[in-house]
Amino acid sequence: MSKPDYDVIIIGGGPAGATSAMLLARQGFRVVVLERATFPRFHIGESLLPRNFPLIQELGLEQKLSRIPHVPKLGVEFAMADGAKFARYPFTIGLLPVSPTINIERAPFDKMLLDAAREAGAEVRESTAVKSIVRLADGDVAVSIGDAELSAKWLVDASGQGAVVARHLGTRQKSEDPRLQKVAHFQHFENVDRREGPEGGYPLIVMADEGWFWLIPLDEHRTSVGLVLNPTVARNLDVPANRVLQWGVERAPVVKERMEHAIGPETNYVAADFSYRCRPYAGPGYFLVGDAAAFVDPIFSTGVCLAMLAGQKSAMYVGKLLCNEVAPARARRDYIKFVDGTTGIFFRLIRQYYDHSFRELFLEGRGPLKVHCAILSILAGNVFPKPAFCLRWRLWLFELLMWLNRHFQLVPKQARFSLLSGQPATVAV
Q: Which of 132, 152, 245, 263 could form a disulfide linkage to 185, CB 3.0–4.6 angstroms apart?
């Protein structure tokens, strides 16, 4: 057998692929990153979990990160779309200690990570799409790029929603739960109103029957605004897909009030295909990381954290495989367990989030045995490699409280709000 071109081929240069490439290149392995776009490029997912920050520090990127415009993220705010109820939670009330974190525009953040991978010694080919998977076997993989073929010992697929390997294998499975089938409409705006002080950096999640909005401060002037809807609702609107955000803002008093002075495009971006899995997450010759493995509804801002930590974990296993320190079957089994464990708890919480009983309890902001503090710790990203027992049993308790609240109303009832009910009057927030 001829010597492969590289030790590792990584498809995709986003946070998952860049993290994996950086760590493998620092170990001296021959790594190539094949990225179909040219960085910087627009991307959503701008709010980082507190759990993300220790990894940034471990990678030695804290100083570079500080030079990119950002907003400190010290907590999160939730509201019903009509303004009837607000709840603001600083991360410091969680059961477990948290690191500081930020909201940041993804284009310069992702470019920083990819540049760091390049500086570490990885070969980075931008504007290079993978046309097909040629072969996948332990120690022998190959891909086609245009008229050329590249070979390596191992493949890391970080191709995002493109899910190159899973589409090749036919393993990409959408969630069958209708609550998890969503479509997002989003755009960046200037001069969106914010709260004063540290709470001005809290991402705001605004809830309605048909879906939810996000408002994420990115820097001193710009805010990311998005509307996530049930796809059936979106299809049945007599509104072009690139105008749905504007339609929703007009019908959600809280969002309309915050955007009274906003400046930005009248049209929006659109992204679909929410919530899928590509099992198995590792197989002969390959590991799937980030959105190429599973896409989790972004309600709790898990995307970048899940991607970078999976990139770190895949780099660890691939490095051990290249040094013959672990058997392929063992590496696959352990990696699959890691991805299942870390994504599973968020899929579980997201299903609950679309239950009105969850919203009533969550907006109340208190519960027995500090159950609300445990939920906040989970939302801060304290699930790696798995949640502590003090969080797990409180999550079970919270699920019991949800069931009881549906039947016995444990907390004040919150009226449901529908974006389809007309154009309500504006309320002060």
A: 245
